[in-house]
Amino acid sequence: MSKFPKDFLWGGAVAAHQLEGGWLEDGKGPSVADVLTAGAAGQPREIHDEVRDGVYYPNHEAVDFYHHYKEDIQLFKEMGLKVFRTSIYWARIFPNGDEKEPNEAGLQFYDDLFDELLANGIEPVITLTHFEMPLHLAKTYGGFKNRKVVDFFVKFAETVFERYQDKVKYWMTFNEINNMMDYTNPIFLWTNAGVTVEDDENPEEVMYTAAHHLVLASALAVAKGKAINPEFKIGNMISHVPIYPNNANPANIMLSEEAMRLRYFFPDIQVRGYYPQYALKHFEREGFNIPILEGDAEILANGTVDYIGFSYYMSNAVDIDNQTTHDEANVHGQVPYQVENEYLESSDWGWTVDPMGLRITLNRLWDRYQLPLFIVENGLGAYDEISADGQIHDDYRMDYMTKHIEQMAIAVNYDGVQLMGYTPWGIIDLVSFTSGQMSKRYGMIYVDRDDKGQGSFKRMKKDSFAWYQKVIATNGEDL
Ligand code: BGP
């Protein structure tokens, strides 16, 4: 018996702002991602309110996919990708976000890109926006803190749904919408929602206000998309990091259950179409005034998703005896009460490597929602070296992926989970999101570009390239 369904969507994933470059090309406006610096090793990226002279902003050129996409698509084709997940750079389509008419040159770029993919037998899988929005919307309107931005997003969504309705079938609304639950780390509120927190505001209340506008925007977009083309499959996209109890102490089991609400809050709404009780109770307890208006319940109920797209990189563990606060736990994916998991090793960036956690995640999401699942990001960020033989021997990456694909196969065949596909993250090297560094690489295709913005942009196959080609060709049989 084959391990994966015959129409399984093997692919690769990227995001516009981490890949494309061409930051002001053909009428594109500046985006919130264009004012993020490259964090020095181990340091967070800074957010500037405008581009400053003499500062290096890695997303401006990224890996210049804007000018290399034809050559890259040839490599994807050789690899055998069936799908390619990328996003549409909102500021290419509406440079300021609040224009009446879209930017035709920006629309044309994605027409050309999707045509090129389709002509090479690769189906695009599109995230409407992946951690970016026009900078003007953040600065002038306060991003998704402001309900007006919902309308701008819906107009953007409608514009691209209309335009690409015959070229794209699989869509997702907001990338890792739940990342902003880490609201003490400013980068997540900024990139998820274009929001900064003022001194007199409660950051958690601000986060839930923006979150409400995001779930409305997502639901309205889903409804618009289905009206434009009922064949569309529109999913959400969440980051899923399971949070384990550190031991069998029931207090830890409950702690982990509660902490998992950080992961489930958004999908609970986007899949079921209404707010979970635990969230409403939390608002009440905290005295939060979340602007849920009359009619919003109907919007949420009418815009539920068709499938769940999610990223999986690592797991966390928590212990009631480790009283860290939310402020201290502001590293990507970390949570209050977090402790080290003695059973797991970590990557060079401190992300645990936990293949079985992927099977656990698949089962939990399937059991809770009974919707098809799509792993739209997974992978190992690592320092790659070009060896004396001129090659990149990234066995660690193949090992990581083999172990994760094995767990996927168990989830499908043993557990009966419905899994649509697998698009490993950063199929071609790109700018790391959390660090802004190039040296945290995920790709199976190397790009000659360093942390300071030096390099020729030349592409090279890593050893994992041929390995993944074989995995796809055998539909996951030969790992
Ligand atoms: C996810 C994001 C991606 C991506 C990935 C890896 O959170 O959706 O944009 O970058 O994580 O993270 P990083 O690049 O920080 O290693």
Quick structural overview:
With 479 residues, the protein is an alpha/beta fold.
Describe what this molecule looks like in 3D:
By secondary structure, this protein is an alpha/beta fold. The chain has a single domain (9-473), classed as Glycosidases (TIM Barrel, Alpha-Beta Barrel), CATH 3.20.20.80. It has 15 helices and 15 strands. An eight-stranded parallel barrel has the order 1-2-3-4-5-7-12-13, surrounded by four helices. A three-stranded mixed β-sheet has the order 6-8-9, with helices on one face. The model has no long low-confidence stretch (mean pLDDT 96). It binds 6-O-phosphono-beta-D-galactopyranose (BGP). Residues 15, 18, 131, 175-176, 239, 311, 377, 381, 425, 432-435, 440 line the site of 6-O-phosphono-beta-D-galactopyranose (BGP).
List keywords for this structure.
13% strand, 479 residues, TIM Barrel, 15 helices, 37% helix, binds 6-O-phosphono-beta-D-galactopyranose, alpha/beta
The backbone outline, from C-alpha atoms, is globular
Tally of helical segments: 15
Strand order of the largest sheet: 1-2-3-4-5-7-12-13
In total, the number of domains comes to: 1
The CATH H-level homologous superfamily? Glycosidases
Largest sheet: 8 strands, parallel, barrel
Helix content: 25-40%
CATH architecture: Alpha-Beta Barrel
GO cellular component, one term: cytosol
InterPro entries: GH (IPR017853), GH_1_N_CS (IPR033132), Glyco_hydro_1 (IPR001360), Glyco_hydro_1_AS (IPR018120)
Keywords: Glycosidase, Hydrolase
Organism: Aerococcus suis
